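# step 3/5: fold
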Amino acid sequence: MKNAFSLLELIFAIVVIGIISSFAIPKYLDTKNSAVISTIKRDIATATTSIQSYYLVNNEIDKISDAVTLNEQNWTIEDLKVTYKENENNCVVLEVKKDDDGDELTLSITPDVGPICKKLNEDGIIETTYDLY
């Protein structure tokens, strides 16, 4: 008596695994994108509020990093600019612009960069300007 699988049993097992994978992999990728989108939306809200609060207390802002700390895996923080990139292109940019009339915080999004940016835009993240005074 042999203790092994027949070729037919192995082929059947591979087909079943393939069918399960065809449903599971897209669902997994969609779940991952949803988690990233949720994180980015939360980060935008946190950064906006933190920058506005910092400006309210100090009447100026020289570096965004003084007002907020964000995950450096997702965000690139410069002096007055915070950027989230998708596919090596700017997706979300949060920037403090200094002007003689008063400083402002601008949020801009480029929805055609990739699926995450597109979904952020569909969820209501749009180009917005906040006065900082």
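# step 4/5: annotate
The first helix runs from residue 7 to 58.
# step 5/5: archive (pending)
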